[in-house]
């Protein structure tokens, strides 16, 4: 059974700092997704990673994929308060298996 | 707004009552998915449709749950004889069903509270 684990589960960081969220998955998958969820809101698609070594960047967020290690990272550069949210990774094709999420709080 | 829409956004019901939720996907999307999300957890897959055909159901979808997509457009999710454990956010998503990425786009969700 495919399992997806994220760490850390909670992250409190100062504005301007850098940090990385990790997503490990237990079996091979040809697609990995990152989503953002604000409190009480639905999920917003951030990135889709398809191949080993794939890197995608949008603003202060950069996602990468290492299929051999079954690991994806979401790197936050110079965090700002607006990035405060819960971030989920998910793997799968039609049936997404989500991680437990990383709740990020950026402190001014 | 051309995104995924869900109705109602909130539903409070008493244990034992039946509830029905509706999802309208993005118009050109062939695939439609239902997920359930409880507090502090990631969404869990319930079922999905390719056009009007329901192709997979999770073990989480007990006999009290039924989903339909009669004309391959909107979908309904019905829960019969609701239980307190059914309280959750029910998310609908849709995707094109083609292409390499086939990203799922999520609706705002229906929050169900069973008293």
- Number of helices, counting only DSSP H or I runs of 4 residues or more of chain A: 0
Q: Overall 3D geometry of chain B?
A: globular
Taking the sheet with the most strands of chain A, its summary is:
6 strands, mixed
Gyration radius over CA of chain A? 13 Å
Query: What is the number of strand segments of chain B?
Result: 11
- Estimated structural class of chain B: mainly beta
The share of residues in extended strands of chain A comes to: over 45%
Overall 3D shape of chain A: globular
Multimeric status of the protein: heterodimer
Mean pLDDT of chain B: 93
Q: Quick one: how many beta strands of chain A?
A: 11
- Rounded to an integer in angstroms, the radius of gyration calculated over CA atoms of chain B is 13 Å
Proportion of residues in helical segments of chain A: under 10%
Element string of chain A (H = helix, E = strand): EEEEEEEEEEE
SSE ordering of chain B: EEEEEEEEEEE
Question: How would you classify the helix and strand content of chain A by structural class?
Answer: mainly beta
The CA-CA distance between the termini of chain B, in Å, is 33 Å
Largest sheet data of chain B: 7 strands, mixed
Mean pLDDT of chain A: 93
What is the straight-line distance between the termini of chain A? Answer: 41 Å
Q: Could you list the spans of chain B in which at least 5 consecutive residues all have pLDDT below 50?
A: none
Describe, in plain words, how this protein is organized in 3D.
The complex is a heterodimer of chains A (108) and B (115). With 108 residues, chain A is mostly beta strands. Helices cover 0% and strands 56% of the residues of chain A. Chain A has strands at 4-7, 10-14, 19-25, 32-37, 43-49, 55-58, 61-66, 71-76, 85-91, 97-98, 102-107. The relative contact order of chain A is 0.33. The mean pLDDT of chain A is 93. With 115 residues, chain B is an all-beta fold. Chain B has strands at residues 5-7, 10-13, 19-24, 31-37, 44-50, 53-57, 65-68, 75-79, 88-95, 105-106, 110-114. In chain B, the strands form two sheets. In chain B, strands 2, 4, 5, 6, 9, 10 and 11 form a seven-stranded mixed β-sheet that branches. In chain B, strands 1-3-8-7 form a four-stranded antiparallel β-sheet, with no helix packed on it. In chain B, strand 4 (31-37) and strand 5 (44-50) form a beta hairpin. The mean pLDDT of chain B is 93.
